[in-house]
Amino acid sequence: MAEYANIIVDIFNEKLDKTFQYRIPEAMKEKLTLGMQVYVPFGRRNIKGYVVGLTDEPEFEVAKIKEIIGIATDSVPIESQLIALAGWMKKNYGATMNHALKTVIPIKKKSNAVEHKSVRLKLTEIEAKSELAEFERKHQKARVRLLSALIENPQMDQSMITQKLNVSGTVIRALETMGIVEVVSERSYRNPVSHLDSKGYHLTLNEEQQSVVDVIERNLDQKIAKTYLIKGVTGSGKTEVYMELIAHMLAQGKQAIVLIPEIALTFQTVMRFYNRFGDRVSIMNSRLSQGERFDQFERAKNGDVDIMIGPRSALFTPFSKLGLIIIDEEHESSYKSETLPRYHARETAIERARMCGASVVLGSATPSVESYYRAKTGEYELLELKHRVAEKPLPKVEVVDLREELKAGNRSILSVQLQELMEDRLKKGQQMMLFINRRGFNSFVSCRACGEAIKCPRCDVALTYHQQTIQAQRQLVCHYCGYMTAMPKQCPSCKSNMIAGFGTGTEKVEEEIKKLFPAIKTLRMDRDTTMRKDAGARILKQFAEGKADMLIGTQMIVKGHDYSNVTLVGVILADLSLYANDYRAGERTFDLLTQAAGRAGRGEKEGAVVIQTYQPDHYAIAAAASQDYKAFYEMEMAYRRMLRYPPVYDMLQILLTGESKGKVESYAGILCRDLKEKTKTLQYTQTRIIGPGEAAIGKINDEYRYVIYIKAPGLGAITTLRDYIDTCGCEGVTISVDMNPMTVC
Question: What does the DSSP 8-state code read for residue 338?
Fold first, then answer.
């Protein structure tokens, strides 16, 4: 048994981001394991820390090594492999080890267990009848009721005994003391998918799907671990391929993790997997209660489930026999964490797979430029599904130039073509989806007299008008800090009554649709309508059951959903994502449009798509309309090479924030000069330092923001400069870094 423990203290401070050694008390030596949280003396106080190493070798003078005080009883031990993964995340994403450890522990502390109690008869039938006769003689009616029931059924739920038989706990305990019965307690795990019914599900793969499965299974059988990219058009049956691969792994006694980009996708995904694999499937996400999440963690550790489905955090499921990690819709930006450490689930999944000899499968109709680039260079193995299942045709896509609509006098948010197609689908009893990537009613409110837009007092952005929020009606909302205020009747600047909303969001689209088609039944799915637990699942279930003619929503509705009766998809304004101050704007637009178009015509009926835009000739929109990924990729890569963006170059984003604009601006200039000097000293001739400059949104939540970018061909120079940044600092200024950011500031 080890004498000493190496511990990371629970303090988020770069200077304390190292291990401290403590002596293990004799009484604790058999209990202490890697990953446990313990109480240790630190300076003048006692704090928590994580055990990351056990050793017999002291690193310091023995007399100066302090002793562990105790084990935190509510903590959840983490596996040594996850500790190693946390170390890798710290190194690659520039966070503290403490930040990384807290990330790989989806469940921070134990939750009260749900106990299932039953009462069991300990006597033989003859002995029990003898005792029963004695109770009857003494007119002990409650004991008679209990013993009579147990003679008929030797084990019963305690709750049934107390409620149905009206027998108190005192009577049960009395019979237990007499040795007549015993109370049996069993841990009952909360199961968030227990309400589902497994219908059984197995579809014969087509030739194209089977060829992809054969390639991967051949390597799995030969213990060859690889990363695969499945590029499959929308409706090509990627999920069927995933399930077939998982079935193969389960037959080998292995386990699988399935990552999905958003919680909103959980319902439909879980239903498909549950129908195939039953209660071997579970889910992990932030919408579960603390108790539910803890129980899924425990079920995974105990081997009670073999398949875990969920967003990023599901990646850290403590499976001991992990054989396969699947990342569906791998292009999604939600796989990149917005909090420290700013890890990407794709890269982290590949590293975890490497540690345990597992394989990774990435799937998308529109692979990220980075993944396709790595597949083209041989880092990943590229496999393609070029046709929809059952040879169903891709939907017919029509691009509508909104400039021409305006010239023709149409000022509606719906083009003439889209209105006509909607009317046709309503007559036929077919369903539709309308996509606009902006929630709320109006995108901003402005005064027509003085031209002032109403802005958030804490952020440098215009407030969005919402007809209805959870809290109240007719509210102006900041989508960055959450600030809310009532819609004013007068302009706050000039007191004019000429104040009005401009721009369009999901709420306004829904209102306009109901004006044009009064009999239509609509559902709306955006962040506002899915804030409550299971709200998204309920909306999707209603739509799947045909209780609405149209589903209106943001990007939530364009990812992974499969409805056979949807024959029309309309994109209200395809340009919105093009206007973003971001080098990924073209890629994001292409992804959204292609995915949206892919929701139409997935059943037996032919699908149609209408894309409304002011820029019909933009390469991202044109490629999406023709479903031509390769044409888009070539144009996008030419742009990335010219401007030295990922994946050709690696890029580090440095964000400086603080309450004093002058201080942040000044220190950003100092840091930028220091970094440029550093590159000269180290002779990083191909490294580019860009900035400093004010961020696209100069203030969020009363903090001013400046940004610096570093570009380099490879991670060597960037890692060195990032480590140097860790040593820098200025009081009142916070520095955060993001490697190859999904969105730029």
Answer: S
Q: Give the DSSP letter of residue 453.
A: B
Answer whether 688's CB lies under 8 Å from 644's CB: yes
Residue for token pair 């939540």? 701
- CB-count burial class (<10 Å; 0-12, 13-18, 19+) for 489: exposed
207-390: which CATH number, 3.40.605.10, 3.90.1150.10, 2.60.40.10, 3.40.50.300?
3.40.50.300
Residue 128 CB contacts under 8 Å (≥ 6 apart), including other chains: 121, 147, 150, 151, 180
Percent above pLDDT 90 for the chain: 65
pLDDT band at 542 (very low <50, low <70, confident <90, very high): very high
**Helix 369-376 / helix 629-643 crossing angle, nearest 10 deg:** 90
Q: In what order do the strands lie in the sheet with 650-658?
A: 688-700, 703-712, 650-658, 734-739
Provide mean pLDDT across the span 185-205: 67
Pick the CATH number of 650-739 from 3.90.1150.10, 3.30.565.10, 3.30.70.600, 3.30.1330.40: 3.30.70.600
The percent helix, strand, coil of the chain (3-state, each to 5) is 35, 25, 40
- What fold does the segment set 4-104 form as a domain? GIY-YIG endonuclease (3.40.1440)
Amino acid 343 reads Y
What's the pLDDT score for residue 451? Answer: 87
Please report how many Cα atoms fall inside a 13 Å half-sphere around the Cα of residue 354, on the Cβ side: 10
Q: Which of 158, 164, 126, 124 is nearest to 145 (CA)?
A: 164
| Per-residue pLDDT tens digits for 674-709 | 999 999 999 999 999 999 999 999 999 999 999 999
What digits encode the pLDDT tens for the residues 306-361? 999 999 999 999 999 999 999 999 999 999 998 889 999 999 999 999 999 999 99
**What mean pLDDT comes out for the span 415-425?**
96
Band (pLDDT 50/70/90 cuts) for residue 579 is confident
pLDDT in tens, 271-296: 888 888 988 999 888 777 787 888 88
* Residue 432, beta-bridge partner list: 550, 568
Quick: pLDDT tens for 626-677.
999 999 999 999 999 999 999 999 999 999 999 999 999 999 999 999 999 9
CATH superfamily of 396-439+505-641: P-loop containing nucleotide triphosphate hydrolases (3.40.50.300)
Q: Do domains 207-390 and 650-739 have the same CATH topology?
A: no
Cis peptide before 692 (omega within 30 of 0): yes
CA distances to 227, 243, 260, 523, 552 from 383, rounded to whole Å, are 11, 16, 20, 37, 33
Using CA atoms, how far apart are residues 411 and 477, in angstroms rounded to an integer? 26
Calculate the alpha carbon distances from 105 to 6, 101, 516 in Å: 18, 6, 51
Alpha helices in 682-735 (DSSP H): 715-726
- Listed by start position, the domains of the chain span 4-104, 114-188, 207-390, 396-439+505-641, 440-504, 650-739
- Which contacts (CB < 8 Å, 24+ apart) does range 544-549 have? 544/268, 546/431, 547/521, 547/523, 548/431, 548/521, 548/522, 548/523, 549/425, 549/426, 549/431, 549/432, 549/520, 549/521, 549/522
pLDDT at residue 735 is higher than 60 = yes
Q: What is the dihedral sign for C-alpha 511, 593, 362, 279?
A: positive
Q: For residues 331 and 362, is the Cβ–Cβ distance under 8 A?
A: no
